[in-house]
User: What shape does this take?
Amino acid sequence: MLQDHLISAAHLSRDDIEAVLDHAAAVDADPDLVRGRHDGRVLALCFFEPSTRTKMSFESAMKRLGGETIDMGAVDSSSVKKGESLADTVRVIEGYADALVLRHPSEGSAKLATEFVDVPLVNAGDGAGQHPSQTLLDLYTIRENAGLDDLTIGIMGDLKYGRTVHSLAHALTNFDARQHFISPESLRLPRNVRYDLHEAGAQVREHTDIEAVLSELDVLYVTRIQRERFPEEREYREVAGEYRIDTDTLAAAPDDLTVMHPLPRVDEIAPDVDETTHAKYFEQAHNGVPVRMALLDILLGGDDR
Assistant: This one.
């Protein structure tokens, strides 16, 4: 499964996804199922960009499996600051660990890194490319709340630079899912992503207005406008705050609508939504632990997987 690495959601089959989600559900129901299974194993956390949820949930997952983590630390305090290449960095760290989790600002960096390591490597975000472990916990949350077949999902916000969006859209092509993408014209899905979804036979529609499709949705997946990805501050200011969900917006939504967000949020979901039954984004974040426990267990060969 996964050919020893997890680099892109586009490489995941339905069987791959369901294997992880089913194992995660078993772990979620009974953490003792895998507790201590990877005693003595070490997971290296290599984060070239800031992270809270991804980094801490991988650390929590590994420790709950009985293993330990080592952390490369901030880029400014590492040999990267001295000009060390990514290839050399992962070659060195591979000698200290049984698996690596890599986040890097350059698209394609995780795929490049796999050419230099023999231990499992998980892509924890490569620029505006992919974030497949986030996709797995997103799918787990969707499955728990709305199911994955006969699904109508709206994905709103920064679709151009949003790696969580690109990953999720690819993974959903394995299921009977109608995907609606809502964004400003300047932040539409990249052409290559649209092409790949079309080739995969995805049911895709694009909109600039959430009201046009809200009443049809089972799930609304909201993303922030990513200031750090814009080449110019002016471009960011033109769209910042343009797409915002609050309780007034959700008055027209189905009663059982599930609202998700990969977090962190800025102002795209108002705090008053937190108190509604729609809000599932904190549950989504918490699901990162059992899903990443299941993923690491599989990649590290637990239970003969």
